[in-house]
Structure formats: structure tokens, C-alpha cells
Amino acid sequence: MKLSGTRDAGKADSWYEGDPDVLSNQLDGFLSGVPTSVNNSHLPIAGAKVIIAPHAGYSYSGPCAAWAYKCLDLSKAKRIFLLGPSHTYYLRGCALTKFAQYATPFGDLTIDEPVVQKLRDTGKFQDMPTYNEVEEHSLEMHLPYIYKRITQTFSSRDEYPTLVPILIGDNKSPEEKQFGGLAGPLPSRSRQCLRSELRLLSLGTRKPRDPPIHESIKLLDELAMDAIASGRHDDFIDNLKKTKNTVCGRHPIGVTMAALEVLAQNTADADKYKFKFVQYQRSSLAEVLSDSSNVSSGRGAPAARAHFEN
């Protein structure tokens, strides 16, 4: 298949500023709000090639995403894999782009057509429907940050890395390992003990106070982050099963962890393939079930939440 056309910056003026000057100033402000070093490492962190960042409107997620993107080391990047969950249609498996370019208010990002075709030739990937691809904000929200960081890293467009966007569907653990295998070649004790104290809240449940809902959400998220930081895909999947935490990017994270595990098998320094969390933020502090409090999307409210009991 020959890729063609340009995917428009469809969320400009909706999820973020469409004016390139205004948007550039906004992203520069978010990035300047991040320290120049984290955990005694100067930013960008040398060799930091994989990040997890939120995909909400920038008024919710922009400052938090800046931490991830300021840590990202693109100095030797030839291509960028962008993985996001599907919000606009039900997808089982993974899907590839049919566009040759992705537009941003700053300029176009070129799709790596040979790599996309190589993945398509495996027979394991679908194609994204055009409408759904254009409307998918989990991919869109990263594009301005990617373009901004590319221009900060490289002096010439000829040096810009290409882009490989992949939509990750509702996959089971073995499927995530399978897709991770295709891409790969190219907790504290106090939190652990709380697993047995989880109960599910429903709309008829009296407002919890000890602790409040937002503190339980934080503990759930910390358990998920501990599992991700372990570097073990199975630990992350087991955490989601036990806590029922609805991490929006759980499937892209799972595929990425599976790919990193493949790479870690061939090195003596497996720790360099593990995530280290540098920032955690929420859109609001939920007090009742109808409140919205999302780390990665900042939108919507689930019908039920898990809650820790003291």
C-alpha cells in the first residue's frame, strides 16, 4: 500500500491552541516550568528514548506532559513510534496509518512509510479508518510536543525523525506480548498491603471520607506506577486485574512494556529498559463518584471507582 495525503491537525482550537505562535509560547511555558535536572540527571536524560505522557486537552495535561517530553532524548532518533489507545471505535488488535504525513500547527511530520509497510506485511495489523484516525486525540495531543522537541534538537528538516503512529486496541495479555515482540526488535510494602482492602464503589454508596476518594485514586495510580516501573509486563497486567484501575493508556503501555522486556533479555543492564516516573498530576481531586479525576485524559467520570478502606 502506498501512503498518501496529510492527516489534518483536527484538534487544533479544540484541545489546544491552533495559532502556531500562541501554541509555541504555551508549550515553551510548560517546558520552562520543568527543572533542568531530575534525580541528579540533566534534562534531557541521555538515552531516555521511551516516555509515557497524558493525552488530554493541554489545559489539563500540558504541564505534566512537559515533564515527559523534556526528559526525552531525541539526539540520535531516526524515527518516533507513537502509540495511543482507540477512543473513536472499538479496535481489537493494532492499526496502522494510511497517511503519508501528519499535520501540526508548526508543520508536517513525515510518516516512515517503509517501517509502516514492514509492520503491515506481518499480517498482524489493521488499517485505521480515515475518519477515526483523524478524530483520535490520543495520537493528536502528542504531535505538537513531538514537533516542538524535534525543532529544539535538530537544526535541519533533513535530520527530523520520521513518525510511526500505531493505534492500540483492546488486547489481552498474550496479544500485547505478541505485538510487543514485533515492535521490540525494531512496589513499596505499604502500598502492596492495601491490595486486600479494595472495595468497589457504586453510585448508591455513601460518600467515603476516611480516606476521601481522591486519596484512594492516588494509591491505585501509585500501585499501577509501581507495576510499570518493575519492568515486568505480567506485573502490570496482574495489577490491573486486581485493582480494576481503568488506566486509559493501559494497552499501549502493555505493548511497550512487552517490547522493552524483549530488548532487556539481550542486555546485561536490564534496568535501562525500565520506566522511572518523574511527575504525577491529576485534573481534579474527586470527592464524590460524579467528579472527574483523570491522570491521562482529564475528561469523563467512570460509573464506579475502587476505594481503599482504612
TrEMBL record:
Check the record and name the Pfam families matching this protein: Memo
- Organism of this sequence: Xylaria grammica
- Which InterPro entries does the record associate with it? MEMO1_fam (IPR002737)
Q: Name the segments for region: Disordered.
A: 291-310
Instruction: Tell me what this protein is called.
Output: AmmeMemoRadiSam system protein B
Q: Which NCBIfam families match?
A: AmmeMemoSam_B (TIGR04336)
- UniProt record similarity statement: Belongs to the MEMO1 family.
